[in-house]
Design brief:
single chain, 444 residues, alpha/beta, Rossmann fold, 2 domains, six-stranded mixed beta sheet, four-stranded antiparallel beta sheet, 17 strands
């Protein structure tokens, strides 16, 4: 069974919502739609307070090179454009809409019919994806149209589709592969056409045997798509780990997958691309897993962007007693929320509710030099050293020791017997080193 070789861990899977079919979450009374929903510059509002908007209407334009359009996920009146608390714990600009009915833009095809043929050129596909505000739905939220714009000095050979969903608890991609398999595969063919490649690999861990069989069966009718089972090992879904597992190529330090001829997209992104290109539908909703051992009804919801997280929690039976943390994402890479009023955004894959016992961090003690963190690092780094350098603000040394290669998977943190917050130090260090590099570039 294929997998990556270096490092990795096996956290409990806890896929307790994997049998829960996708449900449509009721509309919120108010939608809070942030302008910054991509790994780049925030979009600029193109509507004013008091404007009436429809579902799918452009409300903010991504004008920078790395940015993404934002569309209204609801119909109603713009109540205000204001700073709103978001997943980061900070207040950032958002468009607040009072929901009135559910009136969609007429240009969006809402029929259930599956459209297989795509007659657009590569350039037209990329432009459509840009217009529809599609970003990577695996968590990074990098604008998809930018990722598809291959520089003239590079060549894409393979499209790699990430259907691994190795993060514990999360099951939204699993359900998409089961319930929207045909649309997903068509989305893959559209991405292949955009990149002008003849071969695509879909990597799925073998704990999702039903999804594997479903996509294998569908892909058999489409040329150049290979569905590949992978061994269960975290973080199998990391771009560099997935490439190594599927085609045996190693992305060099500091380089992107395109350096070895690959472009990686998430399974959810492939579905969003299908809807954008074939149905003229912007990215206005996504599947979100609401889960946790204490949750009355673990579920996978189709949620409109801008819906408060509290709406998902209430639909699943309310906040359990003795809740310790509410995490956006999974337990390995997710981040704790400061409020349940923050909105679902394009990058929200799941909401995990952890009880006090689960969420309690062990008391930190001195490093015992066991080197477990080094052994499990999938990037071949020395997390204990990088954490020490960050703690002592030795940013140049951290840069030299390749801190920017860290993928923030949390394997080091997970395996540390001394309870040291390695991932916290690494995130701080990456941020500071990134600032240092940008400042240096400005001086040139």
């Amino acid at each position: 069974m294929k997998t990556f070789q270096m490092g990795g861990v096996h956290p409990p899977e806890n896929k307790i919502s994997e049998k829960a079919a996708i449900e449509v979450l009721p509309l919120p009374q108010k939608a809070f739609i942030p302008l910054g929903q991509n790994l780049g510059a925030p979009a600029k509002a193109v509507v004013d307070k008091g404007a009436l908007v429809k579902v799918g209407q452009l409300i903010a334009s991504g004008e920078a090179f790395i940015s993404a359009n934002v569309h209204s996920s609801v119909s109603g009146k713009v109540a205000r454009i204001d700073n709103v608390l978001d997943h980061s714990g900070y207040r950032n600009k958002a468009i607040v809409i009072d929901v009135e009915g559910d009136e969609w833009e007429e240009s969006i095809d809402r029929s259930p019919a599956v459209i297989r043929e795509c007659n657009l050129s590569s350039e037209e596909i990329i432009q459509k994806i840009k217009e529809m505000g599609i970003v990577g739905l695996g968590g990074a939220t990098f604008p998809t149209h930018v990722k598809l714009m291959v520089p003239t000095d590079k060549k894409a050979e393979f499209l790699i589709i990430n259907g691994v969903e190795c993060e514990p608890y999360l099951t939204s991609d699993h359900r998409l592969m089961l319930e929207k398999g045909e649309e997903l595969i068509i989305g893959v063919t559209i991405l292949m056409k955009a990149l002008k490649v003849e071969k695509a690999f879909i990597g799925i861990e073998n704990n999702k045997s039903d999804a594997l069989e479903n996509l294998k069966r569908i892909a058999a009718d489409y040329k150049g798509i290979e569905v590949q089972p992978l061994k269960v090992k975290y973080p199998q879904g990391g771009e560099k780990q997935l490439i190594k597992a599927l085609i045996g190529r190693e992305v060099p330090s500091g380089k992107l997958p395109l350096e070895v001829g690959c472009v990686v997209q998430n399974i959810g992104t492939a579905f969003a691309v299908y809807e954008a290109v074939q149905k003229n539908k912007p990215l206005i909703e996504r599947v979100v897993t609401l889960t946790g051992k204490s949750v009355k009804k673990p579920a996978n919801y189709l949620v409109r962007i801008g819906t408060p997280v509290n709406n998902l929690i209430e639909t699943s039976g309310g906040l359990p007693e003795k809740t310790g943390k509410i995490i956006s994402g999974g337990p390995m890479m997710g981040k704790a929320l400061v409020s349940t009023e923050v909105p679902v955004v394009k990058g929200t894959s799941g909401i995990l509710i952890m009880n006090e016992k689960e969420s309690h961090r062990p008391l930190m003690s001195n490093c015992i030099r066991c080197a477990r963190c080094i052994g499990v690092c999938p990037m071949g780094l020395e997390p204990v050293l990088l954490a020490q350098l960050s703690a002592n603000e030795r940013w140049e040394d951290a840069e030299r020791e390749r801190i920017l290669d860290c993928i923030e998977c949390g394997s080091c943190h997970f395996t540390c017997p001394s309870g040291r917050p390695l991932l916290d130090y690494l995130r701080v260090g990456k941020n500071k080193v990134g600032q240092l590099i940008r400042t240096r570039a400005k001086k040139i």
